[in-house]
Amino acid sequence: MTLHYELTCMFCSLNELISFLHVNQSKERGTVKDKVDFKVDEDVTALRKAIEGLGTTEKTLIDVLTQRSNAQRQLVASAYEKATGRKLVADLEGDTHGDFENLLVALVTPPALFDCNEVIRAIKGPGTTESILTEIFASRSNKQIRDMADTYLKETGRLMIHDLKSEVSGDYAKALLILAEGKRDESTSVDAAKAKEDAKILYEAGEKKWGTDEDKFIDILCHRSVPQLRQTLVEYKNISKKTLQESIESEMSGEVEKLLVAIVKCVKNVPAYFAERLFKSMRGAGTDESTLTRIIVGRSEIDLLDIKAEYKKLFGVSLHSELKSEVSGNYGEALMLLCGTED
Fold first, then answer.
1. What is known of its domains (predicted)?
2. What DSSP letter does each residue of 239-253 carry, written as one string?
3. 201 Cβ neighbours under 8 A, 6+ residues apart
4. Could you give the CA distance from residue 152 to residue 45 in angstroms, rounded to a whole number?
């Protein structure tokens, strides 16, 4: 019996098989892996020497922290605290500064806590940074969102969804708060008839209607599974002259438009969505280092290899070469090491 036949027999449909292969392949698409000959004590000794010596040895910090997985960094941070009585994060904050400090702190922070801190950063102070909220909630899985919410409660003593409610409003709030529940359907099966029905509902709520019924778009795009939405995009194109993304862009505006477009982009191709975000962070007046850090650190163990490939395909240049021209010093060196070898 061939492997193809055996895999096919395990699933009810080709869509389920494709989804299974995509999920399992994505686990191997990071640029950062577990270090094979990992020795916690050696790393702690090297970090202590780099931090406690006369002047911080940034090269050691970069070599150790960019070449370990996050799980390994957590072991190092724990051992470091036992050995010194100080938190590694606090020492990094005291001995480095600027974007380099933010990058190192991100590297030694557990993923759920890092996302949690980014949400807090987006909503604290005057005004809300919706672009951060949109990126995070449009691209994370249910488990990632639930882990983030649990961490938020532990860190702040408040419910994340409650704080979000006080910071966002209107149709954007409706959509974001649904996503923040972390309850999107995650079944891998596809109901072709339902996809056609949803496509028709979206068409009639947007292009065919005088005035757009945003609630219909929010309900479908924030609740349906990713495989189901992929089929809905196909069915929408079959009944409209536009893609669903084009329809949203022509029928809506403001933050809700950006959020729903981000969802559609992630449904189609998550790595391409992040490649575009990286590209935009290095365009215009000044580089958006916080976005570079968030995406490159956050995706380094998930799909950064695919993001690099999409970047080159979409923009005709390698991510490495763009980073070389936009960031420099210890920060730039660390970012490029996280991205792996140049294509």
1. A pair of annexin repeats may form one binding site for calcium and phospholipid.
2. HSSS-HHHHHHHH--
3. 216, 220
4. 32
Please state, as a whole number, how many other Cβ atoms lie within 10 Å of the Cβ of residue 49: 11
Cβ atoms of 166 and 206 closer than 8 Å: no
Residue among 271, 253, 261, 268 nearest 311 (CA): 271
Note the pTM of the prediction, 2 decimals: 0.89
Radius of gyration of the chain (CA): 22
Q: Among residues 158, 70, 139, which one has the least CA distance to residue 277?
A: 139
Which amino acid makes up residue 268?
A: K
CA pair distance 159, 164, nearest whole angstrom = 9
Amino acid symbol at 106? A
Distance, CA of 153 to CA of 136 (rounded, Å): 17
- With beta carbons less than 8 A apart as the criterion, state whether 68 and 76 touch: yes
* Residue 182 CA: distances (Å) to CA of 192, 222, 236, 283, 299: 24, 10, 26, 32, 19
Q: Tokens 């509902």 correspond to what residue?
A: 201
Q: What is the pLDDT of residues 148-193, one digit of tens each?
A: 999 999 999 999 999 999 999 999 999 999 999 999 999 999 999 9
Residue type, 210: W
Task: Please answer whether residues 202 and 236 qualify as being in contact, where contact means their C-beta atoms are separated by less than 8 angstroms.
Answer: yes
* DSSP code of residue 172: H
DSSP 190: -
* Residue 257: closest CA among 201, 198, 314, 176: 176
Amino acid found at 45: T
Contact call for residues 139 and 164 (beta carbons, < 8 A): no
- Cβ-based neighbour number of residue 177 at 10 Å: 16
DSSP for 211-230, written as a single string: S--HHHHHHHHHHS-HHHHH
